[in-house]
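Quick start: read one record
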Amino acid sequence: MKTSSRNTFTGTITGIIFGGLNDEVELELASGEKLYGQLAHASTERLGLAVGTEAMMMVKASEILLVSDNDEFAICCRNQFTGKVLKLVRGFVNGEVVIQTPSGLEFNATVSLEGINRLRVERGATVTAMFKSSHVLVAAKK
């Protein structure tokens, strides 16, 4: 499947927590890293999701929050990946930030210039990319 999402990850479903209304799906990537997506239980059934199913998760770049210098707070966010800024492209209003984890996994984040400046984002800086499991789109092979 082709998609315009810059954050598209494929792997195998390794866990599903079934809820009354919503389910949480755990996707393990080839690198061993895990992503979490939340979707309606009806969607879990419609997609035929089960442990062992090959699936894809997508996240809009604008849904990724960057955090730096956080030694004080634990944050309630299921998907957190720390890495180095690989690329920074500044626009007039927003910038594109590409973060690479130690395993080579890359996340593309669209961040306001104000946010980039406030965090002092620059190439080589360490940041954490975060996104809520409810902001993840899940796709499964038919």
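The first strand starts at residue 8 and ends at 17.
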